[in-house]
Design goal:
There is one protein chain. This protein has 12 helices and 10 strands. The protein is α/β, with parallel strands linked by helices. The strands form 2 sheets. The protein has a 6-stranded mixed beta sheet, sandwiched between helices. The protein has a 4-stranded mixed beta sheet with strand order 4-6-8-9. Bound molecules: acetoacetyl-coenzyme A. The site of acetoacetyl-coenzyme A has 21 residues, from helix 2, strand 6 and helix 5.
């Protein structure tokens, strides 16, 4: 497996576990972290043996944001010229499912990366926030857009304008996270959910992900048509035949990904 500087990558059966590993900076997301994540996510997407991925951090911090020390000296020409943060679109282009397992701080870019995931599982210690306004800036990795879609205008606006943190219970009731679990069991639970997803028919997993994401990009009518076309398309797969035969025969399906 490739060597990475800022993340740890482990494969457990069909699940890839990626752990952010810059404890000295509370997993602040610098350019090397982005390069490592782009490579690890591309390797995951290309590997037929891997069916789900979990991205996590440490007990104290999922990630405390983009690396302020790396950004602080930059000017407009460098930021605009390098399309700073543009590389995250390679992470969000991942076709296969991935989950963010968040304990501790998920602030600024940390909250934004968690929101790039297909869903967030939160430890009861998780704290989410977009505190960029306190640095004289704004979210830059999609936070204003994804937070508004996740929790609605009022709460997103309040979070961005005040920089206050949301705890795990509030994040769950606001719809930002799928579920909250005790911190000590976060990774086990995330790996269990990931293993359950990994055991599904692979093409159906991608299709389900694509159609839920389409809900945020299209009108209702276009989204419903997109859903129906993908549903129709799956009737051209071996796994649809197998899945429905397995149901009738009262046995688990055996998927080929074809
Ligand atoms: N960038 C760079 N370094 C960071 C960092 C960040 N985002 N967050 C923490 N660190 C570093 C600290 O500088 C410190 O390093 P030193 O020991 O060398 O001083 C180390 O991590 C530990 O941090 P603290 O001593 O501050 O830890 P704490 O427990 O007292 O506080 C915290 C924790 C409340 C999360 C605090 O570290 C903090 O407020 N961090 C910054 C949060 C933030 O503003 N994030 C947004 C960044 S901008 C952004 O993300 C833009 C975007 O939209 C993409």
């Amino acid at each position: 497996m490739a060597e990475y500087e800022t993340i740890l990558v482990e494969r457990r059966d069909a699940v890839t576990l990626v752990t952010l590993n810059r404890p000295q900076a509370l997993n602040a997301l610098n350019s090397q972290v982005l390069a490592d994540l782009i490579a690890a996510f591309a390797a995951y997407d290309a590997d037929d043996s891997q069916r789900c991925l979990v991205l996590t951090g440490s007990e104290k911090a999922f990630a405390a944001g983009a690396d302020i020390k790396e950004m602080s000296g930059q000017g407009f020409a460098e930021m605009y010229g390098s399309n700073f943060f543009g590389g995250w679109e390679k992470v969000t282009a991942t076709r296969k499912p991935w989950i963010a397992a968040v304990a501790g701080y998920a602030l600024g870019g940390g909250c934004e990366v968690a929101m790039m995931a297909d869903f967030i599982l939160a430890a009861d210690s998780a704290k989410f926030g977009q505190p960029e306004i306190k640095l004289g800036v704004t979210p830059g990795m999609g936070g204003s857009q994804r937070l508004a879609r996740a929790v609605g205008k009022s709460k997103a606006m309040e979070m961005c304008l005040t920089g206050r943190m949301m705890d795990a219970a509030e994040a769950e009731s606001a719809g930002l996270v799928a579920r909250v679990v005790p911190a000590a069991g976060l990774i086990d639970e995330a790996m269990k959910v990931a293993a359950a997803i990994a055991a599904m028919a692979p093409l159906a997993a991608i299709a389900n992900k694509e159609m839920v994401n389409a809900a945020f990009e299209t009108t209702l009518a276009q989204g419903v048509t997109f859903e129906r076309r993908l549903f129709h398309g799956l009737f051209g797969t071996e796994d649809q035949k197998e899945g429905m035969a397995a149901f009738v025969e009262k046995r688990p399906g055996k998927w080929t990904g074809k």
